[in-house]
Amino acid sequence: MEEAGKQAPAGQENAAEFPLSFRGHKARWPERWIIEQRTSGRSVSTVTIRLKAVSLSLFMKRCHFSIRTRTTVAQQLPADYKEKLAIFRSYCSKHIGDKNIQPSHITNMDEVPLTFDIPVSHTVEKKGTSTLAIRTTGHEKSSFTVVLDCHANGQKLPPMVIFKRKTLPKEKFPAGIIIKANEKGWMDEEMMKEWLREVYVRRPGGFFHASPSLLICDSMRAHLTADVKKLMKQMNCELAVIPGGLTKELQPLDIGVNRPFKVRLRAAWERWMTDGDHSFTKSGRQRRASYATICEWIVDAWANMSAGTVVRAFAKAGIISEEPHGTESDSDSEESEPGMFDGDLAQLFNSDTEDEDFDGFD
Question: Is residue 217 within 8 Å of 243, Cβ to Cβ?
């Protein structure tokens, strides 16, 4: 035992106050902070940890620190990516200028793969625990697709969900969402044509095709078939196809919208798992959320995405040069809403699967 009055090793000055903090190694945040709170008899929940994270986020900003994510293979850019970026942005700029396309007619659409269970990949647990179980309904691999679409002025079109089944579910769905189904639960040529007829047509003046428009999407095969291009032509729509490997640089939804949308969905799923009305099978397994409940989460999450967030994503992609008047300032962005915190720090509490490329379900 250390003699009274003897100076503690560097970094361990407060060890006497928190005797569990040092057992052969230096504790890291949030481990040490959790130990300190428990040593003092205070309860520690994930909510209190998140509140502490908010204060840490402010500290990191003041000191210009950030949490860096490992660069995945999917994030590697082509060798000539700068040239491709310039060509694509020039193509969009030329068509916007030549045809006087307004921000309300510059649209980005993207497919977002989702699952019925959306658990985080990590949790707070006592060190040394060999097995970490996170409760789900067993449907974290049951997949479906949400098609998101938004305009450069911040407005959004209704989301379209594609469930993996032969027929439409016989449930009462909320307003503001288009429900579809196919055997893959993914976008194909027929679904793309239905999206154009039922969703894209809802843009301002879309029913009469009076105003020229620009549709920005990735190079998925379903977006580029002859029949799809023919239908776009009839709708007075110019197609801008993002070069392969550059969606994270040129697709507004990928740049600044999809991730906070997924964060909201995960929060809704976590609330439902904790507080929602549940039913169980005869074997005692909890049933997953209904199709209608899932759609309610989607509608709410999409409605809560601010116009300012959408506009900033288009600006970061280089599609528009400045924010149109009337959009929210940075202070109204998703990251500063109650219960949300800095995007870097959010990585501590949310999985990073949204950084992975996706080519459809098996």
Answer: no
Tokens 């400045």 — which residue? 322
Split at pLDDT 50, 70, 90, the class of 322 is low
CA gap 102, 151 in Å, rounded: 10
> What pLDDT is recorded for position 166?
93
Single pTM value for the model: 0.69
pLDDT value of position 30: 66
Helix, strand, coil percentages in the chain from 3-state DSSP, rounded to 5: 40, 10, 50
- Please classify residue 187 by burial: count the beta carbons closer than 10 Å to its beta carbon, then call 0-12 exposed, 13-18 middle and 19+ buried: buried
Place of tokens 């740049």: 255
Q: In angstroms, rounded to a whole number, what is the distance separating the alpha carbons of residues 98 and 124?
A: 56
CA geometry: angle at 21 spanning 19 and 25, to 5°?
Answer: 125
C-alpha to C-alpha distance for 350 and 262, rounded to whole angstroms: 10
Residue with tokens 């990735």: 218
Helix (H) or strand (E) holding 143: strand 143-151
Classified as helix, coil or strand, 199 is: coil
Strand partners, 143: 115
Return d(Cα 44, Cα 37) in angstroms, integer: 7
The residues that bridge with 149 in the sheet, in sequence order, are: 109
> Closest Cα to residue 251, out of 97, 85, 115?
85
Collect all residues with Cβ–Cβ distance below 8 Å to 128 and sequence separation of at least 6. none
Q: Note the helical H segments in the chain.
A: 31-39, 46-62, 81-98, 189-198, 226-234, 247-250, 252, 258-275, 291-303, 307-316, 343-346
Centre a 10 Å sphere on the Cβ of residue 225 and count the other Cβ atoms it contains: 15
| 3-state SS, residue 161 | strand
Quickly count: other Cβ atoms within 10 Å of residue 216's Cβ: 24
Please work out, in degrees rounded to the nearest 5, the angle formed at the alpha carbon of residue 97 by the alpha carbons of 150 and 109: 20
Look up residue 232 and give its two tokens.
């776009």
For the chain, give the number of residues. Answer: 362
